[in-house]
Each structure stands twice: as structure tokens, then as C-alpha cells.
Specification:
Blueprint lengths: L1 H8 L4 H25 L17 H30 L5 E2 L7 H26 L2 H8 L18 H14 L5 E2 H18 L22 H10 L10 H6 L6 H8 L10 H8 L1 H4 L35
Parallel strand pairs: 1-2
The chain binds zinc ion (ZN) (2 copies).
Length: 312
Amino acid sequence: MAAFDDLIAAWPAWPTILGAHLLLIVVPAGAAFLALHVWKGNPFRGRKIQPGLAPSHAIRREVFYSLLTAFIFALNGVFIYVSTANGWTLIYTDFADYGWLYGALSLAVTIVLHDAYFYWTHRLMHHPLLFDRFHRLHHESHSPSPWAAYAFAPLEAVIQAMFLTILIFVLPLHVTVIYLFMIHMIVRNVVGHSGFELFPRGMPAHAVLGVLTTNTHHDLHHSSRGSNYGLYFTWWDRLAGTEHPNYREVFDRVTRGRERKVASPSSVLRAWRPTAIGNESTGRGPARNDDPRDMFNADGLERQAVPDARAD
Ligand SMILES: [Zn+2]
Ligand SMILES: [Zn+2]
């Protein structure tokens, strides 16, 4: 039980680690929420992906579970702290040990690996046997706010935390690289759940920038499920055939700004609803769970209506 004793002995560091994890979610999510959902001068207000803002009870739920996730991540942080103090991990503190180039490359590799880890664990959690316990809570945010970024059920939070815990035992990572990775992770998550499209027009079709997920990309995952499982990059969805068939069209409509009043995304969303699912044979519906390409039969139990375009 030496490891357990070490965890207890590290108690003076616990408040710092917990405080850091709380700040890591509260600051970016709070700032994005104030800037996009509260501030009347929000310059992106014409780019709301779904009509209407999330109701206050949904926001309260998202805040509660985001803070719970921060607590679970902090527990994991204590484990990493103790493991590193005992020399069990490959975390290092002097860039000279591996050089600056390695430091930069290790950050890029960590982000790419995390994206792959996220995509496949995410698809796995959409399996009917796992969805309820692991992932349904995150999908209660049909029209997400920035606070939905970490709104996970505890079991999903553990899955999300495990990536870094595994990686530090197999890949040497500088402490600063870990901090940068965590900041990048939460910022991309908060932005992706912001409910507004902040990325430039034409991005999904761009030869280079198109590999990055946009806010519309993940928003579609919340509004219609069964597609767009990726976190930072679009390549896994494209390789596996799980990109939403109307992704580019919706992005174009959302980023058309005020012209949306003429052709709003809600009209597109309505077109995907199961009333239109009867049109699956026409190819007009979203990527559905009965797609034979979907090895996990994702969302097999989720044949309910695609959520209303209204905030919920
Ligand atoms: Zn999901
Ligand atoms: Zn989400």
C-alpha cells in the first residue's frame, strides 16, 4: 500500500491541484459563456448554430457536472503528481534532457494521439451497452453551452482522464508540454461547445484547415448524434465514414450570418428529423446507426427524434 500512503502523504498538494483543475474549466468556460451567451454585444450572435440559448436549468446541470469532472481530473492529477515524485513516470522538467524540438513534437504527437483516443473511446461509448452509463449525460445538452465542455458522467470523466495517465508512462513529456496540452484540450472543448460558430467561412472545405473540427462539427453531434465523433480533427470521421452528410451545408448556412434569416439552419435541422429519416433511402437523413459501416452500431438504441432545434 505504499502508493496509497504516498497519495495521503501528498495531501498538502491536493488543494493546489484541485484549484488548478477548477480554474482550468471555470476560467475558459466562464469567459466564453459571458462573451457569447450573456454579452449583448457578442459579435458572433448572428452565427448561433441552433436557434435559442440553452435554458438556465440546462446550464446549471452543465456547470455541476463540469465541476465534478474537474474534481475527478484533480484526483487523477494527484495520482500523476505522486507517481512523478516517485520517479515512476516519464515526465521530465528540463527541456535540455530531450531538446526543444522533441518538446514541440511531443506536444503535437500528444494532441494527435488524444484525438484518436477520443474518437474511438467516444464511438465505443455510443455503443448501446455503454451509452447510458458512460455518455448519455453529455448528450442531455442538445444545444450545448461552453459549460457542456466537461459535463460528463463520472465514468466518462474517468475514461477521459485515463489518456494522460497512460501516456506519461510510455512517452517522455515535459511538464510545460502537459500544461499546454491541457490548456489546448479545454479551450478546444469550450469553443466546440460554445453554440456559436467562430471559425472562418469555407473552413470545412479548405484543403488544410478542413482537417480541424469546427464548432458546427461538434454541435451537430449534439443535435443529431450518430456522426461527427472527432474532437480536434476531422480525419477519423472522414476515414470511418461518420462525418455528418450535411456538415458543410450547415456550416455554410451558419456562417452566412444575417442571411440566415432567409435560410436558417433550423430549416436544415428539420430536414434531418426522423420524419425525414423516412428519407434515409434518399440519403437526406443524418449518418444513422444502422449504417453498416458503423462497427459499433452506434446509437442503436437512439431512434428517438432528433432533438428539436430549440435549445434544451
Ligand atoms: Zn457523443
Ligand atoms: Zn460534446
